[in-house]
Amino acid sequence: MLDEVRKGVEQHGDYVDFFAADAPASGAFRCSGCGYGVTVKTSLPHCPMCGGTTWAQAASQPQHASPGS
Ligand SMILES: [Zn+2]
Fold first, then answer.
1. How far is the CA of 41 from the centre of ligand 1 (A)?
2. What's the CA-to-centroid distance between 46 and ligand 1, angstroms?
3. Chain-wide mean pLDDT for the chain?
4. How far apart are CA 55 and CA 27, in angstroms?
5. What is the tens place of the pLDDT at every residue in 23-54?
6. Sheet of 27-31: strands edge to edge?
7. pTM
8. What's the CA-to-centroid distance between 43 and ligand 1, angstroms?
9. Distance from Cα 37 to the centre of ligand 1, integer Å
10. Distance, CA 54 to ligand 1 centroid (Å)?
């Protein structure tokens, strides 16, 4: 007999900022609905793929330093 306690899955592991369409923003974002990526300089659009209006900020600049010179 299984006595497994299933805990609710919490998604606090990776904190992600979400932005709504038409919000002023700049940088790389990814649609929270379909994952479509955009890079904006002024404000966020409606997703051209799924029409979504929620965007998650994407990492646009790798933190890895280039080896060598
Ligand atoms: Zn989308």
1. 18
2. 8
3. 83
4. 11
5. 999 999 999 999 999 999 999 999 999 999 99
6. 18-20, 54-57, 27-31, 37-40
7. 0.63
8. 16
9. 8
10. 8
Greater confidence (40 vs 7) lies with: 40
Measure 29 CA to ligand 1 centroid, in angstroms.
11
State the amino acid at position 6 in one-letter form.
R
- Using the predicted structure, report yes or no on whether residue 57 has a pLDDT greater than 80: yes
Number of helices (H) and strands (E), helices first, in the chain?
0, 4
* pLDDT (0 to 100) of residue 7: 58
C-alpha closest to that of 31 among 54, 14, 11: 54
Q: Which residues contact 32 (CB under 8 A, 6 or more apart)?
A: 18, 52, 54, 55, 56
Could you tell me the two tokens for 8?
């609710």
CA of 50 to the centre of ligand 1 (A): 4
pLDDT band at 59 (very low <50, low <70, confident <90, very high): confident
